[in-house]
Each structure stands twice: as structure tokens, then as C-alpha cells.
Amino acid sequence: MSFPHRRLATVALVGAVALVAACAVWAAVAASPWWWCAAGPLLLCSAVGAYDVAQRRHSVLRNYPVLGHMRYLLEVIRPELQQYFIERDFDGRPFDRDTRSTVYERAKGVTDQDPFGTERDVYRPGYEFFVHTVMPRPTPEKPFRVRVGGPHCAVPYEMALLNVSAMSFGSLSSNAIQALNRGAAEGGFAQDTGEGGISDHHLRYGGDLVWELGTGYFGCRTPEGDFDPEEFARKAAWDTVRAVSLKLSQGAKPGVGGVLPGSKVSAEIARVREVPQGETVVSPSYHRVFSTPRELVRFIGRMRELAGGKPVGFKLCVGRRRDVLAVCKAMLAEDLTPDFITVDGAEGGTGAAPLEFVDHIGVPLTEGLNTVHNALVGTGLRDRVAIGASGKVATGSDLVKRLVQGADFTNAARAMMFAVGCIQSQRCHANTCPVGVATQDPRRTRALDVADKYRRVQRYQQATVHSALEIIASLGADSPAQLGPHMLYRRTAPHRVASYADLFDWLSPGQLLTGEDVPSPWARDWEDADPDAFTA
């Protein structure tokens, strides 16, 4: 059913209820007062339905008038029923105030303060906490920004501490992309386009873009599916494109390509991605333009030249450590470095993916950050390359943890989806998202009101960054550069804790090059790393 017909059907249903209600009122007046038992509820339903269809704040009610109020009824009687039945956290446990509830509250501008202490089991192995100082520093009035741009970058970019992670138009609806972009424009942070190309919705409000290219080279591909340098240079020159990211792999499914079901490939998406309409789009699992670490580094340099000196980097879910070290060896040999590396944790990802890959493939974000950060430090390249972190970053404490673990900035995907109204119905792949976030159904998309949702995106980002600044100040630091692994602790057993400084190896600048006191696993991988071959 087309959009106008679906919209008409919803309005017609509400009108039919109103007509039946009117008939019941006539019968109550003309025939028997007992008809008021039917007329009252019907009048109420028709009035509520008319309001739901007309209002713009709640996407669920616009798509599901009257019935959608059941969701908000659960919120009224929270936390018992809502928390148990519909709010589950990233690990399958009930949500606490550090996850989706916090995102919703911040997006709505609600103060997220609760009494009666933490709901976490602080003696459970894996529990993490910061150690504060007796003399906290003043909370900075303005959020910090990170300069992204190495020695070969002519147009560096000042990146916010929290940005919109990679989510493509196609995976997300046009209205969701617009809300995220307008929120980024008003809030002064960046939006990663995802690998689906740059659509008109990414450009409508002028938000800063990080243009991501995947193995399909959507938006700058030849008819055969190869990289088109001329088209890439043309689009990379657009003012709103502030940086370019080459996607090697993603946390949800490292080692396999992306899939966009044919039901989502509309004429508009086909035009943006330069693919046939209505056919399932499968991205290859590997790149055609390079096959070795050295070729990767050279291609990054070529992309930066084609982009007019704008920052160019790559995104990956870390696999074998020797592959990361092989890329570092190639950087040293070619004297070429990316301007940034975004580490995607294996626990992250908003798109559909094979269950086995979701659960068992790839390195989690904590270990991935440690690998990339130490590889760059140990080879003396850390000051030339900024590091981003993406993978279930939702709160200020998440943000600061990633900074402590080696990142310079962070990206959020799932939390940003929550901010625009996602209720985690997990119907993304079916094109039946009930709130218009992850669908290409025009009727469902229409329910997401951009003018309302972009403010939520902006409020969520600003509140989360402010929370991170408060935490940084409580640790006694004046800036993220003063954070260290000794400030973050993890409980390793019910009666034992250790700081990140003790849990992980931390290399000193140039240590891999000098070979002095290098931990044996690092020394072995460094020796085996080959700048002319990835691990087979």
C-alpha cells in the first residue's frame, strides 16, 4: 500500500470510530440510556485517536493511534514493569539509569538525578569505577574539541568529544538522517554518513559530515563497482564534508560485507548509492583498491590529495594485533599516516548481522583501543594520528572511559537512535520500524517529526558531553590530555580490584623501535608484522 493510501487508511479508521460513536450517542438519546455505555468509550477513543494522528511529538502514537498509549502506560508505572519487560540493557540485564533511560531523559531535557544510590552490583567481577580526587577541578565552561589532522593534512578539523556514528541513509529513514544532521548542525558536532553515500538529507541542514566509504564505494563508484576518483574528488570538495573515513570493517560483523534488503532500496536510495532499484545491495567483504598494509597507507594518502587536504582516516574493528602493527610499519616506511583511526568495538553495531559474528567475531572496544593506541605510541606515531572510539558509547562515563583507554573522541550510534525515538523494537531489517527510525516506509517515516527530534539529538549530545566534563573535573584533570589509566579501576574478583594501568600493557613512545623492555607478546607480533602482507 502506498503512503497516501496508508495515511488515508489511518485517518479513515479514526473517522469510522468517530462515526460509530456518533451513532451510539444518537441511540442513547433516541432509544435507551444504556447506549451511553458504548458511546462514552467510543467518543473517548475517537478523540484520543484524532489527537494522536495530529500530534508530532510521539512517533509511536502517530503510527499507532490509541493502542500506542500502552507503551507510555508502562512508563508511568516504571520502574518495575517497564524495566523488567521492555527495557533490557546491552548485556541482556535490566536497564539501569546509565543506559537507555538516561539517553531518553537527556534527549527530553529531563534532569537525570535519582535517589537511593547505585543499582549496580559493585562487587560483581567486571564492575568498573573511576577514582576521584579530594580536590576536583572546576568544570570547564566550554566543551573540549580535538584537532584532527596530521602533518600532511592541509585542512584540519576540530572534532567534538561525542559525534554521530556511522549510520547510512537506507538503514535509517530520511527523517532520521535529517534529525541527526540538524542536531549536529545546531550542536556543533559531526555526523558520520555511514557507507551508504551522501544523500540530500545529509546536506539539508548543513551539519558537519564525515563521509564514510566502504567496500562498495557508494556515491563514488564506477558501473563495475570500483572506486571513482573523479566523483570522489567532486563530492569531497563539498563544504559540509569535513573529513573522510575509509571503512575496513565494522564491529557488528567484521569480516563480512553489509547488506541492504531490496525492499529498502527505493529509487532515491538507488540514486544515492548508484545501484539498481529494488535489488538487495551486498557490500564485498574486502576492498578492491588495496591488498597490503603498504597499499592501504598509499591509498589513504591518495584520498587525502583528492579531498583537497581534508582529514582522511580509516575505521576498523581490530582483529589480529600483528595486522595493526603491519599498518604502522607501512606508515613508517612510507612516511604517510592517516589523520585519524576510528576503532569500532565488536560489541557495537546498529545494523542487522549474522548472530555468530555479533557474538564471537572481533575484538571488543576496550582491547581494540588498547591495541591501536599502544601500536601508535610504540612506533612514535601517536601524536600524528587521532583515535576515535565507537561501540556502545551512551553516557558521560562511557565517554570518559574511552578517553582513559586511549581515544581522543567518541561516536555514538545506538544512543543517537534512541535520541530520535528508537524504542529498540528490533524490526530494522524488516522495514517495519514502528517509530520511523529504521525504515523506508513513507507512512512510518512520516511519524518521525524532524523539528522535534533534532532538538532531542542536540540536547542528548550536550548533556552527555557536560556529564563527561564533570567527571573529568572530579578526577582532578583540567583536560582529557591529563587522564590516565590509573584513574579507572575494574573489579577482577569479589574482593580484588586493579587499575587499567595494571591490567594492560602500556608502551612508551618509540619503545617498539628501540626494542627496550618490550613485553614479549608485543615483541613477537612486531617481529612478525609485515608491511607488505596482512595475516592470512
Rg calculated over all Cα atoms: 25 Å
Assigned CATH class of the largest domain: Alpha Beta
CATH fold descriptor of the largest domain: TIM Barrel
Note the beta-strand portion: 5-15%
Main sheet properties: 8 strands, parallel
The neighbouring-strand order within the major sheet is 4-13-12-11-10-7-6-5
* CATH homologous superfamily grouping of the largest domain: Aldolase class I
**Based on CA inertia axes, which overall geometry fits?**
globular
Number of helices: 21
Instruction: Tell me the domain tally.
Output: 2
Mean pLDDT: 86
> Helicity range of the residues?
40-55%
- Unreliable stretches covering 5 or more consecutive residues: 1-5, 79-97
Counted beta strands: 15
Straight-line N-to-C gap: 49 Å
The chain-level structural class is: alpha/beta
Give me the CATH architecture of the largest domain, please.
Answer: Alpha-Beta Barrel
Concise synopsis of the structure shown:
40% of the residues lie in helices and 12% in strands.
Question: How would you characterize this protein structure?
Answer:
- There is one protein chain.
- This protein is α/β, with parallel strands linked by helices and 536 residues long.
- Helix content is 40%, strand content 12%.
- It folds into two domains: 3-81, no CATH class; 145-523, Alpha-Beta Barrel (TIM Barrel), CATH 3.20.20.
- The strands form four sheets. It has an eight-stranded parallel beta sheet with strand order 4-13-12-11-10-7-6-5. The chain has a three-stranded antiparallel beta sheet with strand order 1-14-15. Strands 2-3 form a two-stranded antiparallel ribbon.
- α11 (293-306) crosses α12 (321-334) and α12 packs parallel to α14.
- It is globular, with a radius of gyration of 25 Å.
- The two termini are 49 Å apart.
